[in-house]
């Protein structure tokens, strides 16, 4: 009963914000292979991303419409296993604290994508209960290696939602080590990208500009083609 009460309170609180929401999940690979320049650059660029939205008056609308969740990986020292972890739960950017990532453990990408989809489905339920309009959800995956768990069910779910135009997935692999085909399995569109570490800023700049385009569009207007075209302009490493 308490869970229902808390959920209803959340719905009422969120419904006070009249802005249509842009639900976005960022999955950040925090496995050991990201240690060093990659994780440092990721931390620097996600900090810039938060500042660009919260401190730039040109992006004022995004402070209240971009509804973001951030996921990473957490290594359990006792079980010697790595699990998905919610770094930042869903909230509009005005309420968010900038995350800081540490690199350690493996790459449970399949279970993390499943967690992201579960969170998006619950978030959409909250929107509907609160009468909150929302745009097509976006999932951005930033990784540098191959998954260490099965991605079968997560990939199937992501593909099915994408084909129904209920999700857009944008996967990025940093460096030369990972197999890009693994990330490609999460989207029916051939848009997975391999980039250099120094090109990571382009991903976050794209996310800001895309969210802005979405926020300025009609709630029923298909913006997917436009932002995907911009995505294709990001440099391949």
TrEMBL record:
Pfam families on file: VWA (PF00092)
Domain VWFA: 23-211
InterPro entries per record: VWF_A (IPR002035), vWFA_dom_sf (IPR036465)
The organism's taxonomic lineage, starting at the top: Bacteria, Fusobacteriati, Fusobacteriota, Fusobacteriia, Fusobacteriales
Name of the protein described by the UniProt record: VWA domain-containing protein
Coiled coil: none
């Amino acid at each position: 009963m308490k869970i229902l009460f808390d959920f209803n309170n959340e719905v009422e609180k969120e419904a006070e914000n009249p802005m249509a929401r842009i639900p976005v999940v960022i999955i950040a690979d925090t496995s050991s292979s990201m240690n060093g320049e990659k994780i440092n650059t990721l931390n620097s660029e996600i900090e810039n991303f938060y500042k660009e939205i919260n401190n730039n008056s040109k992006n004022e609308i995004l402070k209240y419409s971009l509804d973001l969740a951030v996921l990473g990986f957490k290594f359990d020292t006792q079980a010697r296993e790595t699990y998905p972890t919610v770094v930042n739960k869903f909230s509009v950017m005005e309420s968010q604290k900038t995350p800081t990532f540490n690199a350690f453990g493996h790459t449970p990408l399949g279970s993390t994508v499943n967690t992201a989809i579960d969170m998006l489905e619950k978030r959409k339920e909250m929107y509907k209960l609160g009468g909150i309009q929302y745009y097509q959800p976006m999932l951005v995956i930033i990784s540098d290696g191959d998954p260490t768990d099965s991605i079968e069910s997560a990939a199937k779910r992501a593909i099915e939602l994408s084909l129904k135009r209920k999700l857009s997935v944008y996967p990025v692999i940093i460096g030369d080590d990972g197999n890009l085909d693994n990330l490609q399995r999460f989207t029916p569109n051939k848009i997975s990208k391999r980039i250099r570490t120094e090109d990571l800023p382009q991903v976050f700049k794209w996310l800001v500009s895309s969210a802005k385009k979405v926020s300025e569009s009609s709630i029923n207007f298909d913006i997917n083609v436009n932002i995907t075209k911009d995505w294709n302009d990001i440099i391949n490493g």
